[in-house]
Amino acid sequence: MAVVQGKSSDVFNILQASLNYLDQGLSKQSLPYLTGEAISVADVVLSAALYPFLSDSSLALGEYKSLKAWFDHVAARHSFQSAAQKVLQGKGLQGMKSYMQRQPLPQSSVCRDSQPTNNGTPAECDEGERMVSEEEMEAAALTWCKGLNSSPLVKERQHPILPQEDKKNILVTSALPYVNNVPHLGNIIGCVLSADVFSRYGRLRGWNLLYVCGTDEYGTATENKAREEGLTPQQICDKYHAVHASIYKWFQIDFDFFGRTTTEKQTEIAQDIFWRLNKHGFLVEDTVEQLRCESCQRFLADRFVEGICPFCNYAEARGDQCDKCGRLINAVELREPQCKVCRQTPNIRSSKHLFLDLPKLETQLEQWLDKSTSTGDWTANAKQITRSWLRDGLKPRCITRDLHWGTPVPHPDFKEKVFYVWFDAPIGYLSITANYTDQWQKWWKNPHQVELYNFMAKDNVPFHSVVFPCSLLGAQDNYTLVNHLVATEYLNYEDTKFSKSRGVGVFGDMAKDTGIPSDVWRFYLLYVRPEGQDSAFSWADMALKNNSELLNNLGNFINRAGMFVTRFFEGCVPAMELLQEDKKLLAMVSWELQQYIQLMDKVRIRDGLKHILNISRHGNQYIQVNEPWKKIKGGETDRQRAGTVTGVSVNIACLLSVMLSPYMPTVSQTIRDQLNAPQSCISTMFQGTGTFVCSLSAGHRIGTVSPLFQKLEVDQIEALKKRFGGQQPEDEPPKKKMTAQNAASSPPAAVPTTAAPAAEVATANGADPEKAKLLTQAVTEQGDKVRTLKGQKAEKAVITAEVAKLLDLKKQLAVAEGKSLEPAAPQKSKKK
């Protein structure tokens, strides 16, 4: 320290250069920590190394503003201060080790170096058990013993929901689904389901939250659908609005209001915004070239033109945007355009239109974006897509179209035109709210009191982050703009895209006919939610997650906990006397709960689900090691121990019922009904950063316990996969199965230079690849279980039994892979 303060030797110069470099790097990012929104090992290690310098007030650190702000942010944490005190008291590394053990792993327990699996979910981390300090154990036990407090119950909603002075007011929207498209699984997870989970979570947190959505009903697609079905556009909208509402009801999407855009309120509000933009000089006229299909006798809407992208050469780019490179396109820029209705080549015609002057609004937009993206929770893809738009420079955007079915343009020079859907549709959020309550402006013209969350897939980002905000900024009417823009990547189906026409993939109106409960669908879609990259729905993986995570992990733990109370303690929760092992479990569960709340607050929905499953895994191991079914038959000490383990376990089950509520509402309620759980446990558990307390005290009588989940069988999954896999083209003859006989009579083929794929060889040997995939996961999980038991030094009999199960699973796997199980011929001994 003296060397630094005296500024002698080269050490100070090296340190100063390093601090400069670090400060510059921190100043270029909007994240509070080195690697993201949550504190990581990198923050801990670096802040610990720099602690002697950065905590010394005598050093002139004012020039390192970003570095100082980062260090103050880390140092403000109570656990850091505690660890620092231990360093000063001579505990050195041990103090810092204790601090590091308390912190969440980078990216919420996801291994940085692990490679993503095919469905986009993180690969499992091969990490040891998290260390728990003595202080954590005692703190968790103290909190646990306080029990349920007198916090106010989560109130039932009373409509209309309006902003309140003393509340956190959250307005949630999900992208309006287009009315005549039946949503597939990717549409559902990308918008309404993700928003539903966050909304349910927010209500449990006690936030004053309003969730609105509805069908987007104007445009050419509706006109064409009406012509196909011999109905009017309004009749088509009425018909398919009901279809959407029915699908979302089955998926348990809990809107506060589900409306539509074909309303008088839509016309009123859209035309008001239009006149305000016109008044403030943000609209310009121009003559544009459009594509007109002479065969269909109409100008073609952008989405009814398809051709080659002029930027990336993608062959199926739409007339407004390329799905591959994400660039916006004018339809006339497409190479080799085709009308999607009749497949004829359209002609170019001129027409006069109105444009939103985006370049004139660009400065206002950038100022707002800088603030919103730095203070709000925008997903990385939303930020990236928005930056790319600004980097390329904004251009005037056409807001009118030569159509009949739409919100009419009120300007006398354009009375034959309607508003373009991407100017008109986002205004649907406002009009839908206005149809919910005549006090809608308290939500939409109240930016200082309301936080707005938009949920969507990534292709909708530019219209919500650039076009719509520019419309509202230009209107200059104190509109509420998006604070948190949450965009998913794409969910594919198996190894291809969803296609209604080809019968490929599961669509919303089909899911309920599979016999699989909606909660299981919700769970799996959220488990593979495409948060950081595209993911894929897979039947085999869905069965695997249902059978391993829901049935064998979560359901197994909750059912065992409840059944022990019923069988061993006559349905009443037994008395509990906590040992150190119990306190350790309470600390681990409390940490998982805190991580869950931290992630859910940041809309990290998929990662939040992993912490629920971690808790049930801890619970299963706890039961397995303590064996209450054996101890209940022993002496007084053993019976007391069985009671404690059972009581702690059933309380963890109660906690899980609360944490599951946003994801699996029916299962959550079923668990609470089985446990006869008090309503106050919800508000208590979700207080602050998360509070795990004893909510089912000794003497509490539970209800009837029954299994929560059913196994998905291989033959059931195979039938569903075939049903939703599409059909072979009729003109394609069925492939002839090769046998030894017809192989001999076939003409000689070229000799392959590589071996046949393993899957083909396995199939030829009578293998079952799908079953093999399920069994591979089962073998992995059973192996983990055996290793855990060995590490915990469980009884030899228990380990032997689990090893036997592992060996049996390996035999089943060998059969499924088509491997021979015949024992090798014994070698003759050389001894006489």
TrEMBL record:
<keyword id="KW-0030">Aminoacyl-tRNA synthetase</keyword>
<dbReference type="GO" id="GO:0005829">
    <property type="term" value="C:cytosol"/>
</dbReference>
<dbReference type="GO" id="GO:0004825">
    <property type="term" value="F:methionine-tRNA ligase activity"/>
</dbReference>
<protein>
    <recommendedName>
        <fullName>Methionine--tRNA ligase, cytoplasmic</fullName>
        <ecNumber>6.1.1.10</ecNumber>
    </recommendedName>
</protein>
<feature type="compositionally biased region" description="Polar residues">
    <location>
        <begin position="105"/>
        <end position="121"/>
    </location>
</feature>
<keyword id="KW-0547">Nucleotide-binding</keyword>
<dbReference type="Pfam" id="PF19303">
    <property type="entry name" value="Anticodon_3"/>
</dbReference>
<dbReference type="InterPro" id="IPR033911">
    <property type="entry name" value="MetRS_core"/>
</dbReference>
<dbReference type="InterPro" id="IPR023458">
    <property type="entry name" value="Met-tRNA_ligase_1"/>
</dbReference>
<dbReference type="Pfam" id="PF09334">
    <property type="entry name" value="tRNA-synt_1g"/>
</dbReference>
<keyword id="KW-0067">ATP-binding</keyword>
<dbReference type="InterPro" id="IPR041872">
    <property type="entry name" value="Anticodon_Met"/>
</dbReference>
<dbReference type="InterPro" id="IPR014758">
    <property type="entry name" value="Met-tRNA_synth"/>
</dbReference>
<keyword id="KW-0436">Ligase</keyword>
<dbReference type="InterPro" id="IPR004046">
    <property type="entry name" value="GST_C"/>
</dbReference>
<feature type="domain" description="WHEP-TRS">
    <location>
        <begin position="771"/>
        <end position="827"/>
    </location>
</feature>
<dbReference type="InterPro" id="IPR015413">
    <property type="entry name" value="Methionyl/Leucyl_tRNA_Synth"/>
</dbReference>
<dbReference type="GO" id="GO:0017101">
    <property type="term" value="C:aminoacyl-tRNA synthetase multienzyme complex"/>
</dbReference>
<dbReference type="InterPro" id="IPR000738">
    <property type="entry name" value="WHEP-TRS_dom"/>
</dbReference>
<dbReference type="InterPro" id="IPR010987">
    <property type="entry name" value="Glutathione-S-Trfase_C-like"/>
</dbReference>
<dbReference type="InterPro" id="IPR001412">
    <property type="entry name" value="aa-tRNA-synth_I_CS"/>
</dbReference>
<dbReference type="Pfam" id="PF00458">
    <property type="entry name" value="WHEP-TRS"/>
</dbReference>
<comment type="similarity">
    <text>Belongs to the class-I aminoacyl-tRNA synthetase family.</text>
</comment>
<keyword id="KW-0963">Cytoplasm</keyword>
<dbReference type="GO" id="GO:0006431">
    <property type="term" value="P:methionyl-tRNA aminoacylation"/>
</dbReference>
<feature type="region of interest" description="Disordered">
    <location>
        <begin position="105"/>
        <end position="126"/>
    </location>
</feature>
<keyword id="KW-0648">Protein biosynthesis</keyword>
<feature type="compositionally biased region" description="Low complexity">
    <location>
        <begin position="739"/>
        <end position="767"/>
    </location>
</feature>
<feature type="domain" description="GST C-terminal">
    <location>
        <begin position="1"/>
        <end position="99"/>
    </location>
</feature>
<dbReference type="GO" id="GO:0005524">
    <property type="term" value="F:ATP binding"/>
</dbReference>
<dbReference type="Pfam" id="PF14497">
    <property type="entry name" value="GST_C_3"/>
</dbReference>
<feature type="region of interest" description="Disordered">
    <location>
        <begin position="724"/>
        <end position="770"/>
    </location>
</feature>
